[in-house]
Write a structure and sequence with these properties.
Elements lengths: L1 H25 L11 H17 L6 H19 L16 H8 L1 H14 L9 H20 L22 H29 L2 H4 L3 H16 L10 H17 L2 E4 L2 E4 L5
Antiparallel strand pairs: 1-2
C-alpha cells in the first residue's frame, strides 16, 4: 500500500507542477507569443499517470518506475523552458538548461518503447539480453545526441557546452548507435514472441496492447501529412498512447502462486 502511495504521490506532484510551469512560461513581457508546449505537457502527464497506475501492482512495479521516471524527465524538460532560468556554461556555448532540453527527450521516449516493453507484462524479462541492449541503446542514443553538434538549434552546431573530447567522431558514433538500437528493437520483439509462445492466456491477452498501439502509431504517421498543422509529430503523440496502453494492460493481472493470472480467472 505504501509503495503504491509513493508512486501516486510522485505522480501527483509532477502533475501539479505541469500547469505551474506552463503559467510561468506564458507570463512574459515579450510581444511575440510564447509557444504553449501542449504535446510535451500531455506526454509528461500521461507518463506520470501511467507510472502511478502500473506501479500500483507488484508485478508491474518495474514498468511503473520506468513510466514514472520518464514523466519526471518530461517535467524537467519543461522546467528548462522557464524564462529567466539560465545556467551559463562558459559564455560562448549554449547554457546548460538549453543543452539539457536539447536531448533529455531521448530517454523519455525510448525507455517505454524498449525497456518497458522488454519486461512487459509481468515485470520480468523473457529475454534478459533484451533488457541489456535496451539500456545500452538508450544510453548510447542519449550520449550521441547530447554530445554531437546537430546544426538545428542553440544546443547544436558550435554551441554544445559539453567538453569536445567527450564527443565521439560523428559518423562512427551515429552508425554504432543505429546498430545498437536496431539490435535492441529486434531483441525486444523476440522477447514478446517468446512471451507469447510460453505464456498462458492471461499473459497473451495484454500482448495485443503494444501491437495495437504500434499499429495506431503507424496509421497516424501515414495520415499525419493530411492532418491539421496543430497535430503533433509522431514522436510527440505516439509515446503517451503507448505508455497508456501498456499501463492499462498490466493493471488487471493478479498473482496466483508463481504465475500471473487475469482477475476474471481467479477462483
Amino acid at each position: 500500500m505504501w509503495t503504491s502511495l509513493r508512486f501516486w504521490g510522485t505522480a501527483l506532484l509532477g502533475l501539479a507542477a505541469l500547469p505551474v510551469i506552463v503559467i510561468i512560461t506564458q507570463a512574459t513581457d515579450d510581444l511575440v507569443p510564447v509557444r504553449v508546449p501542449v504535446w510535451e505537457v500531455l506526454r509528461a502527464g500521461v507518463m506520470l499517470l501511467a507510472g502511478a497506475w502500473a506501479g500500483g501492482r507488484a508485478q508491474s512495479r518495474s514498468i511503473g518506475r520506468i513510466f514514472l521516471l520518464c514523466g519526471v524527465l518530461g517535467v524537467v524538460q519543461l522546467m528548462c523552458e522557464l524564462p529567466g532560468l539560465v545556467i551559463v556554461s562558459d559564455g560562448t556555448a549554449a547554457s546548460w538548461e538549453e543543452w539539457l532540453h536539447y536531448w533529455i527527450w531521448v530517454p523519455q521516449v525510448m525507455a517505454p518503447l524498449l525497456l518497458a516493453t522488454a519486461i512487459f507484462p509481468d515485470g520480468r524479462p523473457a529475454l534478459p539480453i533484451a533488457v541489456t541492449f535496451s539500456i545500452l541503446a538508450i544510453a548510447m542514443t542519449s550520449f550521441t545526441v547530447a554530445t554531437y553538434n546537430w546544426p538545428r538549434s542553440d544546443g547544436g552546431a558550435g554551441y554544445n557546452p559539453v567538453f569536445m573530447f567527450l564527443r565521439l567522431p560523428s559518423y562512427p558514433s551515429i552508425i554504432v548507435t543505429v546498430v545498437i538500437v536496431l539490435v535492441a528493437a529486434a531483441c525486444v520483439l523476440a522477447s514478446l514472441v517468446i512471451r507469447w509462445r510460453a505464456g498462458e492466456a492471461a499473459v497473451r491477452r495484454p500482448l495485443f496492447c503494444p501491437l495495437a498501439a504500434l499499429l495506431l502509431g503507424i496509421v497516424y504517421a501515414l495520415l499525419q501529412p493530411t492532418l491539421p498543422a496543430a497535430t503533433g509529430d509522431i514522436w510527440e503523440v505516439f509515446p503517451p498512447i503507448y505508455c497508456a496502453a501498456l499501463a492499462l494492460a498490466v493493471r488487471p493481472l493478479r498473482r496466483q502462486g508463481r504465475t500471473w493470472t487475469h482477475r476474471s480467472e481467479r477462483p
